[in-house]
């Protein structure tokens, strides 16, 4: 009997020790379906920059500058990828408990190994997915200084900007920083991506000055076929951008994908309708720009609203971004070459604001997820406004400082009048986009 009791006791003790270990191992094991989806999303978001954004922007500039735009998007991709390895991932998602940056504990991907897990996916996959967001954000700014910034200045500016602006702001919102702790709703980058890129764009445009001939001579897109092709790639890639931000293959990802598509559609139709009423004909340029406005606007709210809410966000984005674009050019006379601030900046701000309203379950038809415990519509909207202002002001100040430093180091950031006349393809790369 004594032997039997002893065996039972030993078995119970062993079971007690083994079960928690098994549970821990299971908890730290990556989910195959989630991993497959985020791997796919990572490819989709990279696809947004090259070739999507490259072709979209490339078709919008004049023939003499198309290759320079493609080159800028391509080289930004390579440079930011290396910076992400060196310090970016650590600054944004490192183990530091600072509300302002993640520290350097994960510099050079320290501790990121085959078996390390972030949530339910491998940490390698999470790091790669977040890297693609860091890549596209400075690439968006290219549209503001297209056709008139030195290539050397562009490289130095984007490198410093992603380190001093994007990496810290990503930590503020997604890496456990102060805005995330406040409860800011930014599912996929309304503040982190679009507000930062938009504000930086308008600052660069103001400090560079207008292109020669701006508003006095036609500067029409040289290849709308290329632009529409790039726009289609952006639309498809955006599913990875927004639905991938669920970090799981689940209902949240499905809803994010659905509302993203509906917002893009509504944004395009809204912009086209305004043009049709004002000018008698809708344009392909208006359709794709409205689509991008709808995508930028839904980005922060894509994890919060339902289908009807997504359509409403798209309509609001198409309408407000249209008039922001015309105001920038005709009234303020700011040469944001490819409308980065009025589309991405204004769209990101608008979507971040609307996320605080349309998440309300009391609105019923919009299928919002509801506020976090202790939050009301008023308090949530206040947090959203705080996030917009903090991100915008910080980005604006740091961007000005970076531009002044870069200008001093490169003897001015703008190409000469003669170089602008020749085009950046020849002056920067001694090549032509077309040989005809």
Overall description:
- The chain contains 15 helices and two strands.
- It starts with a helix and ends in a 7-residue tail after the last helix.
- The relative contact order is 0.14.
- It has a two-stranded antiparallel sheet.
- It is mainly α.
- The radius of gyration is 24 Å and the shape is globular.
Structural topology:
Blueprint: H1 2-27, H2 32-60, H3 66-93, E1 117-118, E2 121-122, H4 123-145, H5 151-174, H6 178-182, H7 190-208, H8 224-243, H9 251-279, H10 284-298, H11 307-331, H12 340-358, H13 377-409, H14 417-422, H15 424-429
Helix pairs in contact: 2-3, 2-4, 2-8, 3-4, 3-5, 4-5, 4-7, 5-7, 5-13, 7-12, 7-13, 8-9, 8-10, 9-10, 9-11, 10-11, 10-12, 11-12, 12-13
The major sheet is characterized as: 2 strands, antiparallel
Ends distance:
97 Å
Number of helices: 15
Spatial shape: globular
Q: Looking at CATH, which topology would you report? A: Ammonium transporter fold
- Considering the protein shown, what is the CATH homologous superfamily? Ammonium transporter AmtB like domains
Percent in helix? over 70%
Arithmetic mean of pLDDT: 92
Order of helices and strands: HHHEEHHHHHHHHHHHH
Keywords:
single chain; 436 residues; mainly alpha; Ammonium transporter fold; two-stranded antiparallel sheet; 15 helices; globular
Give a short summary of the structure:
The protein is mainly alpha-helical and 436 residues long.
């Amino acid at each position: 009997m004594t032997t039997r009791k002893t065996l039972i006791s030993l078995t119970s003790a062993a079971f007690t020790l083994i079960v928690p270990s098994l549970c821990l191992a299971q908890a730290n094991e990556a989910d195959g379906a989630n991993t497959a989806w985020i791997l796919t999303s990572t490819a989709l978001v990279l696809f947004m920059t090259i070739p999507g954004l490259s072709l979209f922007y490339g078709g919008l500039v004049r023939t003499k500058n198309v290759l320079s735009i493609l080159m800028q998007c391509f080289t930004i991709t390579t440079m930011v990828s290396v910076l992400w390895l060196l310090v970016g991932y650590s600054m944004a998602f490192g183990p530091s408990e600072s509300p302002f940056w993640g520290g350097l504990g994960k510099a050079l991907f320290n501790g990121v190994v085959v078996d390390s897990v972030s949530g339910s996916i491998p940490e390698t996959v999470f790091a790669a997915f977040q890297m693609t967001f860091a890549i596209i954000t400075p690439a968006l700014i290219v549209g503001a200084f297209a056709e008139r910034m030195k290539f050397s200045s562009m490289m130095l500016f984007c490198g410093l900007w992603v380190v001093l602006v994007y990496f810290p702001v990503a930590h503020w919102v997604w890496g456990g920083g102060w805005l995330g702790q406040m409860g800011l709703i930014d599912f996929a980058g309304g503040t982190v991506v679009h507000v930062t890129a938009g504000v930086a764009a308008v600052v660069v445009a103001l400090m560079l000055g207008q292109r020669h001939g701006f508003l006095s001579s036609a500067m029409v897109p040289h290849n709308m076929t290329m632009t529409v092709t790039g726009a289609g790639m952006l639309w498809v890639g955006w599913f990875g951008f927004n639905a991938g931000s669920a970090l799981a293959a689940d209902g949240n990802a499905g809803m994010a994908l659905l509302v993203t598509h509906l917002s893009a559609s509504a944004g395009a139709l809204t912009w086209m309708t305004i043009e049709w009423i004002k000018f008698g004909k809708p344009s392909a340029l208006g359709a794709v720009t409205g689509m991008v406005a709808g995508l930028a606007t839904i980005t922060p709210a894509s994890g919060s609203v339902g289908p009807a809410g997504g359509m409403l966000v798209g309509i609001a984005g198409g309408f407000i971004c249209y008039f922001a674009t015309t105001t920038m050019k005709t009234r303020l006379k700011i040469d944001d070459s490819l409308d980065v601030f009025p589309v991405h900046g204004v769209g990101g701000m608008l979507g971040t604001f609307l996320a605080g309203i349309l998440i309300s379950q009391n609105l019923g038809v919009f299928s919002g997820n509801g506020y976090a415990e202790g939050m009301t519509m008023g308090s949530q909207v206040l947090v959203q406004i705080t996030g917009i202002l903090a991100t915008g002001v910080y980005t604006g100040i740091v961007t000005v400082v970076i531009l002044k430093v870069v200008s001093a180091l490169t003897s001015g950031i703008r190409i000469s009048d003669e170089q602008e006349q020749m085009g950046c393809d020849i002056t920067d790369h001694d090549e032509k986009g077309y040989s005809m």
